[in-house]
Amino acid sequence: MQYTAETPQGSITYELTRKSVKNLNLRIQPDGTVTVSAPHHLPQQEIDAFVCKKARWILRARQRALDTVQVAPPDFSCQIGDEVQLLGRTITIELGAGQPPASASQFGPGVLQGDHLILYPARSDTKGRMLAFRRFLDVYAQQLFDTLNDEIAPLFSPLGVPKVPVTGWWMRARWGSCHTGSQKIILNKFLVHPPLQCARYVLVHEYAHLVYPNHSAPFHALVQYMMPSAKEQKALLARYSPQYEKTIGISAKEP
Ligand SMILES: [Zn+2]
Q1: Measured between alpha carbons, how far apart are the two ends of the chain, in Å?
Q2: How many CB atoms lie within 10 A of CB 189?
Q3: Which stretches make up the YgjP-like metallopeptidase domain (predicted)?
């Protein structure tokens, strides 16, 4: 059921579900919808009062959700015509039959042709298509990270920083990490979705950690020196959220 609470910040409409739960739960969905689940017998005024008390937080979180760039529609299932963001561009999924042509199997089971990604899944059901898409992203991400590594490592070599391996992971909570002990950098494979400058920024940031293993003023100055537009890229990246478990069916793990 939909209800509207009048709050000092204006009216807030929310979807209420009654459940056998102990506490009130409030969530902001990716499309900005406010959902509340409440115990069966809790009076309606108490729920409205709760929404009222949280109004400021709700409006902020809703704005953040609406500002977040969706890299794929919530019902993305890799069907013909589905759209997904790749380096900030909209790519349409097509399905090919059989094996990818040998001449074009640069990205595993996927072939990029202009604004189209032609996938060659081993099985044509949803699971098979999503698996092919994931394999494509794995190969695509690693090639992207290798290319960026070739570009960025030389910028740091005058500072005595060696070129280190850059590996992709699906991560939930971070864009990258730098392991100064084992001398390696891990980047979130989700970086294949935002514009290229975002991945470049994250790699510059992680390489700078090989000079300063902290977020001190000299660290930020170094990042800024290596990439004058670092602040813009960071702000652009903040509009993306690695919520791919729902959208592209990949489960994340932390290294
Ligand atoms: Zn950092």
Answers
A1: 42
A2: 25
A3: 22-239
Rounded Cα gap, residues 75 and 73, in angstroms: 5
Distance 61 CA to ligand 1 centre (A): 24
DSSP assignment of 116-185, as one string? EEEE--SS-SHHHHHHHHHHHHHHHHHHHHHHHHHHHHHHHGGGTPPP--EEEE--SS-SEEEETTTTEE
φ, ψ of residue 184 to 5 degrees: the values are -150, 160
Ligand 1 centroid–CA 205 distance in Å is: 6
Whether 33 shows a pLDDT value over 70: the answer reads yes
Distance from residue 206's CA to the centre of ligand 1 (Å):
6
Q: What is the pLDDT of residue 248?
A: 62
The SS3 call for residue 220 is helix
> What is the share, in percent, of the chain residues with pLDDT greater than 90?
67
Q: For residue 219, how far is its CA from the centre of ligand 1 (angstroms)? A: 9
Average pLDDT taken over every residue of the chain:
90
Query: How sure is the predictor about 193, in pLDDT bands with cuts at 50, 70 and 90?
Result: very high
Q: Which CATH number fits domain 83-247: 3.40.50.1980, 3.60.20.10, 3.40.1280.10, 3.30.2010.10?
A: 3.30.2010.10
User: CATH 3.30.2010.10 spans which residues of the chain?
Assistant: 83-247
For the segment 44-52, the average pLDDT, to the nearest whole number, is 94
